[in-house]
Write a structure and sequence with these properties.
Blueprint (H helix, E strand, L loop, with lengths): L5 H8 L10 H10 L4 H10 L6 H12 L10 H8 L8 H17 L4 H11 L15 H21 L3 H11 L8 H17 L4 H16 L4 H23 L11 H4 L5 H5 L13 H21 L9 H19 L10 H7 L3 H16 L5 H17 L5 H22 L9 H26 L2 H8 L3 H6 L4 H4 L2 H13 L6 H9 L36 H4 L13 H5 L48
Helix pairs in contact: 2-3, 3-5, 4-6, 6-8, 7-8, 7-9, 10-11, 10-15, 11-16, 16-17, 18-19, 18-20, 19-21, 20-21, 21-25
C-alpha cells in the first residue's frame, strides 16, 4: 500500500491489524468520496481478515454503527464484507454489537435490507464440513447460532415493518437443495417454523414453501423403492443375526459393540423422538422426507394441543387446518405422485370431526364443480375415497353422508347421458364419472363390513341401486381398475347386492374401447388408463414419523370372499391385494356412539364446516 496514511502505516509496522479508532473510519469514507481510495481498500481488506480478534471487531462495529448514514450504495463492497463476518457463533459481546449494527444499518439504509435478510437466513442453514461424522456434530452450538440469527431477524422486523414482504422470497432462495443432508434439511425447516412464532403473517407462505419442497422429495421416494430398500434391510439384518449366532459359545454372545456403540445418525440425533421405532431409512430421499415429516407433524401437534394440559385448542387447530387446506389445494391436489406429504392434512383432520367433514366437503365441491379441470376433479374423488377408507376416526355416518352425495350424482350423470351420442365408455369424455364410480367402489370395499353386519345396513346398500350403475352404457366396470372391480364384484356377490361377473365376462370378451377419440367415435383400445392406482392415503412407509399416523390409520382387514379370483387379478400397489392384516389391527374404527340408527342414514350429516374452508 504505497499511499497508506501515516497512522495506518505505523499500525502495520507494529503488526497491529486495526485502524485507529475515534473518527478515522468516517474520514476514510469521506476520503473515498473524494477519490482517495487506498485507505478504504485497506479497511475492506482488514475487515475481511478471518483471524480478526473479537475486541477489534467490537471496536470496528461500534465505530461503523455511528457512521451508517455514510454507508450509501457506493460503499456496498464494505457492507458486503461486514455481512460475511462469521459473527453468530462468537461471544455474546460480539453478537450484541453486530445485532445493534444491523439494526442501525437497515434503519438508515434500507437499500441493504435484502442483503441483511439473506445473510441472516443463510445463517439458519447449518454448514457441515464434508468429512464430518455423525457423533462429531455439536447440536448445541448450532442451536446457539440459530438463536442469535433469530434475535437479529426479530430486531430488523421490528425496525422495518415491511421486511416480511422481502423476507418471503429470501426464505425460498435459501432453502437447501433436496439432496442435502437430512440434518441440514431438518434444521432449516425447524428454523422456518420457529420464524412463524414472531412473523405470523408469513405462516402460510412458510408452510407452503416447506410443503412444496417436501413434495419434491416425496416424488423422488416412490413407495415401491421404499419397500424394496426396507425389505433388503430386513434380509441383511436376518443374515447378520444368523452370522452372530454362529459365534455364541457357552452362553456368551459375540461382541456386538460395533453396532451398538456407533453414534446415532445425524438426523436421528436431531429429531428428538426418543423412541425405539425411530430408525434411519436406507433410502436417502425417504430418510430426508421422514425427518421433515416428523418435524412438521410435531409442529402441527404442538400448535394444536396445549403442552401443559393436553387439551385441544380450538382456534389454533382451525387456523392450522385452514393453512394446510390452502396448501393442499395449491400444491398437493395437482400433484399426482405424492405419497406422504398429504398425511399432514390427514393428521390435523383427526383432531376434530368437523375438520374431517370440512375436508370431505372441500373435495366434494371440487368433484362436482364443472369449472374445475377434470384432472383435479378426478384427484379430489381419489382423495375423498382414500380418506374415507383409511381414516379410522371417520364415523360411519360420515361415510353414509358421502355416499348420499356421490350415488345421486352418478345417477344424474347417467340420466344426462341417456340417448346421447357420447354414451359409450371413454375416459377422456367421462373421466370424472369413472373416478366417482371407482371412489364409491373403493369406499365400499373398505367399509362393507360395517354395512353388512345388519339387515338394515344391507338394505341401505341395496337402495343405492348399484345395479343401474354397473349396467349403464358407460360401463364403469370396463374402465375402473381391475383390482377394485374384482374386489367389489366378489363382495357384492357374496352378499347378493349386485351381480357383476356377467358384465365382467362380457367386457373381457369384447373390444369396447377404454380410451376414445374426443373428435368423434371410438378408436382402438389402448393400455392407457388415467384411473391408475392413485390412492393418496395408501399405507404410510416412513419409519420415524409413522408413529403419528399409525394410530389413526385403517389397515386392510383382508377376508376377501373370493380371494382365489382376486389373486389372479392384475397386481397393484394397494395392500389389500395381499389380504394382509397387521397384527392387532382394530376393526374399522368409528367414534363410539357416532353411528345413528339406520333409518336416519339418508339424512345428510351437516356441520358448520363451511367456515373452515380456505378463503
Amino acid at each position: 500500500w504505497p499511499e497508506m496514511s501515516d497512522s495506518m502505516r505505523g499500525k502495520e509496522a507494529l503488526g497491529v491489524k486495526s485502524v485507529r479508532f475515534g473518527g478515522e473510519i468516517v474520514e476514510v469514507l469521506k476520503n473515498y468520496r473524494k477519490g482517495q481510495q487506498t485507505d478504504y481498500h485497506l479497511l475492506v481488506h482488514q475487515l475481511s481478515d478471518p483471524d480478526i480478534k473479537p475486541h477489534t471487531l467490537i471496536c470496528w462495529l461500534q465505530e461503523l454503527k455511528g457512521c451508517v448514514a455514510f454507508l450509501t450504495k457506493e460503499f456496498e463492497t464494505l457492507v458486503g464484507v461486514i455481512l460475511k463476518i462469521s459473527w453468530a457463533g462468537s461471544g455474546d459481546d460480539v453478537v450484541k454489537e453486530y445485532q445493534s449494527f444491523l439494526g442501525n444499518l437497515v434503519s438508515a439504509q434500507t437499500f441493504y435490507l435484502r442483503a441483511c435478510l439473506k445473510m441472516l437466513v443463510k445463517t439458519l442453514v447449518p454448514k457441515l464440513p464434508s468429512d464430518v461424522k455423525p457423533g462429531e456434530i455439536n447440536i448445541e452450538e448450532y442451536n446457539r447460532i440459530f438463536e442469535n440469527a433469530h434475535n437479529a431477524l426479530q430486531r430488523i422486523l421490528h425496525i422495518v415493518p415491511l421486511a416480511p414482504k422481502f423476507l418471503a422470497p429470501v426464505l425460498a432462495d435459501c432453502f437447501p437443495y433436496m439432496k442435502k443432508d437430512a440434518f441440514v434439511q431438518e434444521c432449516y425447516v425447524r428454523n422456518l417454523l420457529q420464524m412463524t412464532s414472531y412473523v405470523p403473517s408469513l405462516r402460510l407462505p412458510i408452510l407452503e414453501l416447506i410443503i412444496d419442497r417436501m413434495i419434491r422429495i416425496d416424488v423422488h421416494a416412490p413407495k415401491h423403492e421404499l419397500e424394496e430398500d426396507e425389505e433388503d434391510d430386513v434380509e441383511e439384518e436376518n443374515m447378520e443375526h444368523q452370522d452372530d449366532t454362529l459365534f455364541e459359545m457357552d452362553g456368551m454372545e459375540c461382541d456386538s459393540s460395533k453396532t451398538t456403540e456407533q453414534p446415532k445418525p445425524v438426523a436421528e440425533m436431531a429429531v428428538a423422538m426418543g423412541t425405539e421405532e425411530g430408525q434411519r431409512m436406507t433410502h436417502e430421499m425417504g430418510d430426508r422426507l421422514d425427518v421433515m415429516m416428523t418435524v412438521m407433524l410435531q409442529y402441527v401437534r404442538d400448535s394444536c394441543i396445549n403442552k401443559d394440559t393436553g387439551e385441544l385448542q380450538a382456534q389454533p387447530t382451525i387456523e392450522m387446518f385452514r393453512h394446510l387446506l390452502t396448501a393442499f389445494e395449491k400444491l398437493l391436489l395437482p400433484t399426482h405422485a405424492s405419497c406422504h406429504v398429504q398425511f399432514l392434512l390427514f393428521y390435523v383432520t383427526s383432531l376434530r370431526q368437523d375438520l374431517a367433514d370440512a375436508f370431505l366437503n372441500f373435495c366434494w365441491r371440487k368433484v362436482q364443480s364443472p369449472n374445475t379441470p377434470v384432472i383435479l376433479r378426478q384427484a379430489a374423488a381419489a382423495y375423498m375415497a382414500s380418506f374415507l377408507a383409511r381414516a379410522n376416526f371417520v364415523p360411519l355416518s360420515t361415510v353414509i353422508a358421502c355416499l348420499d352425495l356421490l350415488l345421486p350424482w352418478i345417477h344424474r350423470y347417467i340420466d344426462d347421458q341417456d340417448g346421447s351420442t357420447r354414451s359409450y365408455p371413454d375416459v377422456n369424455l367421462h373421466g370424472t364419472f369413472y373416478s366417482v364410480c371407482q371412489a364409491v367402489f373403493y369406499m365400499f370395499v373398505f367399509r362393507h363390513k360395517q354395512f353388512v353386519e345388519s339387515k338394515k345396513g344391507l338394505n341401505y346398500i341395496r337402495g343405492l341401486n348399484f345395479d343401474r350403475v354397473i349396467n349403464c352404457r358407460l360401463n364403469p366396470l370396463k374402465v375402473c381398475l381391475p383390482t377394485i372391480v374384482n374386489m367389489f364384484a366378489s363382495i357384492t356377490r357374496m352378499y347378493q347386492i349386485v351381480m357383476c361377473y356377467t358384465i365382467m365376462e362380457r367386457n373381457n370378451r369384447s373390444v369396447l374401447p377404454v380410451v376414445a377419440s374426443s373428435q368423434g367415435g371410438p378408436t382402438d383400445v389402448t393400455n392407457l388408463n388415467p384411473l391408475d392406482a392413485f390412492f393418496p392415503f395408501d399405507p404410510y412407509m416412513l419409519s420415524r414419523s409413522k408413529r403419528f399416523i399409525q394410530p389413526l390409520y385403517q389397515e386392510w382387514e383382508g377376508n376377501d370372499p373370493d380371494q382365489d379370483e382376486a389373486a389372479n387379478s392384475e397386481e397393484e400397489d394397494d395392500d389389500f391385494l395381499q389380504g394382509a392384516m397387521s397384527p392387532g389391527t382394530p376393526h374399522m374404527g368409528t367414534t363410539p356412539g357416532s353411528i345413528p340408527e339406520l333409518p336416519g342414514f339418508r339424512k345428510r350429516r351437516r356441520t358448520d364446516s363451511s367456515c373452515l374452508s380456505p378463503p
